[in-house]
Amino acid sequence: MAIGVAAVAQAPVTAPPPTTPSVKTEKTAVNLMDVPPLPRGKSTILGGQIREIDAVRDRFMLHVYGEKPMRILFDARTQLFVDGNRIPLHDLKPAEHASVQTTLDGDKVFALTVHILSESPQGAFEGRILDFDPGSGMLTMLSQGSQQQFRVRVTNTTTVKREGQSAFTAENRGQSDLVRGALVSLSFQSDNKGQGTAREVTVLATPGASFVFMGTVTALNVANGYFMVTDPRDQRTYQIRCNPQDPVVLRLHVGDHVRVTADYDGTRYAATRIEETGSSE
Fold first, then answer.
1. Is residue 82 part of a domain?
2. In which domain, by residue range, is 177 found?
């Protein structure tokens, strides 16, 4: 199953444009040298409420709709905006509607940018569909990596499209793809009562669909019958079930390069064919 996070809308991490101080001093130069570079990797945009700001430990809690509160770190590299206007970071205050671009700094979640929204809060979510009621438009999802449920309304103005491998995107069924077990990511807009309305739903996998993954084995658990592959084409990591008695599986090592054909059954990807394409040695 594709590994994801709540409120997933990903974008490459880019360092903020350098600024040139009007007066160059030795102290300024030293301070700039002391600031470490931004963490590398992909970022995730999370929408929610900012609470419990700790200016001493440089952290705050982000309450994401439908999820558990998340602790997020910040420092001098973090940029703060209110309604699109950049303001000093020390002016960060609790906010009802915020959009935070985050990335991993080691095992901690770090804020690259914080956008405070005075109205029209937005957010993103990725997970597996539990239920969709076409009559009411209510879509119920389960977050990837947790047992938290998330509900959002789908309307006739919501865009529903497939994304991914060409064999999968060749057919686009619109809201008919919103079936139990489908993997989706979506962007939504919330009202003041916290009810979200989906703006766009991206379908990543539907039960019965077949996929081909090519990449590096990043984790292997033969006893429990699964391994994980990171595909460089989309920079996603997939957990794939396998037959622990398969001779190919018994030869695998972390770091090996493989080509895997797998079917998605609504809860997981199950390998139907595994080919070794390169060794870790």
1. no
2. 122-205
